[in-house]
Write a structure and sequence with these properties.
Elements: H1 2-20, H2 26-46, E1 58-65, E2 70-76, H3 78-97, H4 106-125, H5 129-138, H6 140-150, H7 155-188, H8 198-206, H9 210-227, H10 236-243, H11 246-271, H12 273-299, H13 304-325, H14 328-359, H15 375-389, H16 395-409, H17 429-453, H18 461-465, E3 475-477, E4 484-486, H19 491-509, H20 512-530, H21 542-552
Antiparallel strand pairs: 1-2, 3-4
Helix pairs in contact: 1-2, 1-4, 2-3, 2-4, 3-4, 3-11, 3-14, 3-19, 4-5, 4-6, 5-7, 6-7, 7-8, 7-9, 7-10, 7-21, 9-11, 9-12, 10-13, 11-13, 11-14, 12-13, 12-17, 13-14, 13-16, 13-17, 14-15, 14-16, 14-19, 14-20, 15-17, 15-19, 16-17, 16-19
Length: 567
């Protein structure tokens, strides 16, 4: 447990160091505060069993609020480790990408950036519902500050909308978790006392009546669907992405949105599988609508950053579709897609931020033909766009393909035929075909974007408005006064992009190690869900049903009673 706790606390400690240091040292301290977790993660990963393990390999707990059943419980399985690896990788990349973009309030910016990394890491390691909620909710504070203080023109409205949407969903999610904990101590195990551990809540929730599971499913899904976001709860995301600073957009796309999909994987499918099976068609339809609807919106965008922002809604529709296929191939594809989307879309936001620093515009009407002016930038732009399109050989293809294949096979007509282990769901070929059409739309709007800004008519407003009057090699000065940037990418900017490009290539050409690592956990989860398929409504015996009715008459008043009275 100490290993995991250190990975959470290291960036927080460095954030405190930033707070008491001189402003000019903030960048260096923040970079160290993100590089140390990378090294520590490598140490933990080197001793990890990456094949054949389905549960937590590192875990531990300490009493925190024992009278309420809340503990500092942490654990790391393969899925958690993969997502934490993405988190720590993006940390130093975001710090380096901010060197010239952020020139004021350095201590505030880098301090909250480090705190945000610690909170996101905590979400993936938490194994107690209240601890999970605290980390999950605390990520709102640093991101709100980063958007509201360092964003673009409409940053205040974007920060408020982001906070209100996600905060509201999180509170409803918390209500669902508290209800399950109450059910555990009042009905499932009377007089056992409060217990917010994932293990206890999962056992209790799986024994709820179907109707009760449906309400818990709705509460949890609302919180996580807003965070993803799933159509029609997506309206906060494009504004937040567009107005956020570059590093904020990278973290938002790379990790924060994955808190929602991870919550679905860890809590929704694990706790209320019967309700998840029942409502999988509805979720699948919403995911497909999001894929197509957001793709069509991208098609008509002129702001390239807003285009990439809406593309996240479309891309993550595939991720949700794979999750609710609820078979091993869909679940594995979804987890892999979480990683791949963070790499390729995060890189696109970095590239857009680099041209914005030079030209102070993101409009495709004001930018064009940059391949002749910025060939290195254009090379990376084409590469990462192809990864987002899902070009075979790059990382975007395999996860997208597996999500579609999982949805195709998740048809109740296939159940029990033994064609694929764990197959038999409520989605099916028609949803997969509709989602596949979204891949065509994705290719259209992303290639259209490339045609406009990379190979289109040569338009370079920054060259005329911000460059030196003598017309030599263009350089645009940022409004913050960081000096001048060369026309094409600097060594620092190239160094930021190269690790992401390398991973996109490796995961595209040889994803086998990651897929092999995901085989065991996804097979176990799919098997547990399959046990609840077509299971008769006999989960709650008559005695427990009577206790449930009696306890319900005292709910929520029982929540206000002394916890000791339940023991």
């Amino acid at each position: 447990m100490t290993q995991l706790l250190l990975l959470i606390l290291i960036p927080v400690v460095f954030a405190l160091w930033v707070a008491v240091s001189r402003p000019e040292r903030a960048r260096t301290i923040a970079l160290a505060g993100t590089l140390v977790p990378v090294a520590w993660f490598a140490v933990i990963a080197s001793g990890f069993n990456w094949a054949g393990s389905s549960g937590d390999q590192i875990s531990g707990q300490m009493d925190w609020m024992p009278s309420l059943g809340v503990s500092l419980s942490l654990g790391a399985d393969i899925v958690s480790m993969l997502l934490v690896g993405l988190t720590v990788l993006l940390g130093p990349i975001c710090v380096l990408a901010s060197y010239t973009a952020i020139t004021e309030r350095l201590k505030t910016y880098y301090g909250w950036l480090l705190v945000l990394q610690g909170a996101m890491t905590g979400v993936f390691f938490a194994r107690d519902a209240i601890l999970f909620f605290i980390f999950f909710e605390f990520t709102l504070v640093p991101m709100f500050i980063l958007i509201s203080l360092y964003g673009s023109t409409n940053r205040k409205a974007a920060a408020i909308k982001f906070f209100l949407y996600t905060f509201t969903g999180s509170i409803i999610m918390l209500a669902g978790l508290v209800y399950v904990a109450w059910y555990h101590q009042a009905v499932y195990k009377p007089d056992a006392g409060w217990d917010f551990s994932f293990f206890a809540l999962t056992n209790a929730a799986q024994h709820m009546p179907r109707a009760t599971q449906a309400w818990v499913f709705g509460a949890l899904m609302l919180g996580f669907a807003i965070k993803v976001p799933v159509f029609p709860l997506h309206t906060w995301l494009p504004l937040a992405h567009t107005e956020a600073p570059t590093a904020g957009s990278v973290i938002l796309a790379g990790v924060l949105l994955k808190l929602g999909t991870y919550g679905m994987y860890r809590l929704v499918l694990g706790m209320v599988p019967a309700a998840a099976i029942e409502y999988a068609p509805l979720v699948g339809v919403l995911a497909v609508i999001g894929i197509l609807y957001a793709g069509l919106i991208c098609w008509v965008q002129t702001d390239v950053k807003k285009l990439v922002a809406y593309s996240s809604v479309s891309h993550l529709g595939f991720c949700v579709l794979g999750l609710f296929a609820m078979n091993p191939i869909g679940l594995s594809g979804s987890v892999l897609y979480m990683i791949n989307h963070g790499l390729s879309t995060g890189a696109l936001f970095l590239l857009i931020g680099m041209i914005y620093e030079r030209y102070h515009t993101r409009s495709m009407k004001e930018l064009g033909g940059l391949a002749s002016r910025m060939p290195i930038w254009a090379t990376f732009m084409v590469f990462f766009t192809m990864a987002s399109v899902g070009l075979p050989g790059l990382n975007g293809f395999i996860g997208e393909f597996m999500c579609l294949l999982g949805a195709f096979q998740a048809d109740s007509a296939w159940a029990g035929q033994g064609t694929v282990a764990g197959t038999g769901g409520e989605l099916g070929p028609w949803l997969a075909f509709a989602a596949g059409a979204g891949m065509i739309v994705t290719a259209i709007y992303l290639l259209y974007m490339l045609g406009r800004i990379v190979w289109g008519k040569a338009i370079e407003p920054g060259h005329h408005d911000h460059a030196h009057g003598d017309g030599h090699e263009a350089a645009a000065s940022h409004a913050g006064g960081h000096g001048v940037l060369p026309r094409d990418l600097t060594a620092r900017e190239i160094g930021v992009l190269v690790p992401l490009a390398a991973l996109c290539l490796v995961l595209g050409l040889y994803p086998r190690p990651v897929l092999r690592a995901l085989e065991a956990p996804t097979a176990v989860l799919a098997g547990e869900i399959a046990q609840h398929r077509n299971q008769p409504e006999a989960d709650e015996p008559e005695s427990a049903a009577g206790e449930h009715a009696a306890a319900m008459s005292q709910f929520p008043a029982s929540l206000l009673a002394s916890p000791e009275s339940h023991r």
